[in-house]
Amino acid sequence: MDLQTTIYLMVGLSFALYIGIAIWARAGSTSEFYSAGGAVHPVLNGMATGADWMSAASFISMAGLIANMGYGGGLFLMGWTGGYVLLAMLLAPYLRKFGKFTVPQFIGDRFYSKGAAVIAVACLLTASLTYIIGQMTGVGVAFSRFLGVTSETGIYVGMGIVFLYAVFGGMKGITYTQVAQYVVLILAYTVPAIFISLHLTGNFLPQIGLGGTMTGTDMSLLAKLDSVVTDLGFGKYTTTTAGSTLNMFVYTMSLMIGTAGLPHVIMRFFTVPTVKDARSSAGWALVFIAILYTTAPAVAAMAKLNLHATVNTAVVKGGDLYAPEASILAETRPDWMKRWEKTGLLKFADKNGDGRIQYYNDKSKNPEAVAKAAAAGWKGNELTVNADIIVLANPEIALLPNWVIGLVAAGGLAAALSTAAGLLMAISSAVSHDLIKGIFVPEISEKGELLAGKIAMAGAIVVAGYLGLNPPGFAAGTVALAFGIAASSLFPAIMMGIFSKKMNKEGAMAGMLAGLFITLFYVFAHKGLFFIKGTEYLGLIGGPNPFFGITPEAFGAIGALVNFAVAFLVDKVTPEPPEHIQHMVEAVRIPRGSKVVDGAH
Fold this sequence. Notes:
By secondary structure, this protein is an all-alpha fold.
């Protein structure tokens, strides 16, 4: 069976499975639509959370970013995983005990204000829509390569598939679909990694292979990679940081607290029967997430080494990387490169007219590398590789069997679609449950609310598709902005809502608005108003990254500090919350059966 037929077959079977599950698990009530009836087993919920959590950014982009950034890319691993631990330990059990299945509902009730709920909905919509852009970009990347269609067509097809199982199935359909999507995406990620680790290092486990020695040599894989990339003018793979150390720290914090404030992940903890189950499913989710997150650094390093070995034969054979015969002939470049060139995500230009492909850092500050390139007659880097293709192209670069390439195609789409569905659920419930039922039309019937939820989700799919067609950057960069928005607006409000019984509605509302505004102001200065190209205003803030060199993707942590500071300042000059609200906060924090709770009541 040829490659294209294999890909169609595997992607088609996975889509049929998702739609079949959605039909089987249709939501018949608002409880099933919003929280799957609160009857999902903790292990299954852990798998669904893993799929919800591991988005196109995790599956498609993260290893690409680590491959490009080296050691500095570790901030994504630390930030996202650390944030999940923060969410599981500090927020999820208390929110589950509070019993409200959306973040705006918790904020509205805890801060005894419909205004606070409306601001929370605005923050949620801003973060979730920004996050969806990354998923839709990922869907477009995967479809454009594997189904032989344009990225735009890929996004339209992705919108249709999500519409079918998210709108009809609600949280119940989405949950069981995400369990299937987890199985598909984790096999798609680990199977190629095992093959490649065995080939390069003889180790079955990629996690061990990353620190192992290259087959047939006494040199470690990372030492070999360091040697190759530094010789070609790139930064040292094992030590390069993302900008300054301060920026890397702030970036990690932003991803961490942004993760803990993501509404679509928080909602997952309301689909299990009890608070104990919420804690258990959080633990299971961490296990399922760790399988992919510990594999990613190995995938990144091995894919980078294989890419260099493909373009420069001296990487494997040894010898001078700058020798004329080391660079491969353009006309004999492998088929996988030609396939990716059609997507525009891999580009080749013969700048010195020698018919060969030179892949190196032509902006290097390494004088030795610059001198070698000049002596070899190289006129500039001739290969441009988008970070988003590293994982998807990995099995092709390593010349793995067709069925593995088909599996990766299905896995990439599963990752993007599972998170898109979770985000759409968060958007839908915020509009139908928190705005329409909670504020504007409280007397709406259950049937009317269910219909409103489905219409809101359909509308969100259209908006998400439009934003996916006009993205502000590659998948993981856009997703980092979404985390920054959640970090600066929702996370502080949830934290203060649980752990500060004296925090009042005025403080919380002022804090959310201040955090969201300052973060968007800084982000829009770099990325354009509402991500519209050409509307940037860097001159107004003093050029790129003017605040201690902190990048817009990392600014969420600064926005969160502003949120906390404004909230506590306003809280000091406004009335305390009512007595019953303070008792409620104490009751949520203290375990059931405790004498303290009984005393408080």
